[in-house]
Amino acid sequence: MKKLLLIFLLIAAWSVQAREVYPLCDDWLFSFRYENSSDNARCVTLPHTWNLDALAGTIPYLRTTADYQRKLYVPQTWTGKRLFLKFYGVESVAHLFVNGTYVGEHRGGTTAFVFEITDRVKYGSENLLRVAVSNAITGDVLPLSSIHNIYGGISREVELIVTDSTAVSPLYLGSSGVLIHPRAVSTERAEAEAEIHLISKGDNFCRVTLEAFDPDGIQAAAKTIKAKLDGKPVVIPFTVENPRLWDLDHPNLYRMRVSVESDTSRDEIEIATGFRNIRVTPEEGFRLNDSLVRVHGVTLYYDRPGTGSAMEAEDYAEDFAFIRELGANALRSPAGPHAPCLYDLCDRTGVLVWIDLPLIRAPFLSDVSYYPNPQLEANGRQQLREIIAQHINRPSVVIWGLFDCLWQRGENPVPYVRTLNELAKKMDRSRPTAATSNQDGELNQITDLIVWAQNIGWDKGRTEDLEIWLGQLRSGWNQLRSGICYGEAGQIEQQGDPARRRRSNSLLWQPEGRQTRFHEDYTKYLAQDTLLWGTWINTLFDYGSARRPQGVEATGLVTLDRRRRKDAFHLYKALWNNTEPTLHITGRREDERNGDLQTVTVYSSAGEPVVTLSGDTLAVEQYAPCIYRCDSVRLNGRMKIEAKAGDLYDETFLTGNCALVAPPRRDPQQTAGSAHSVFEAALPSVRGRNRPENRIPADRKARTRSGSDRNRAIPGKPTPTKSNAGAATASNSRAAHPASAYGDGWHAARAP
Question: pTM for this one?
Answer without folding.
Answer: 0.87
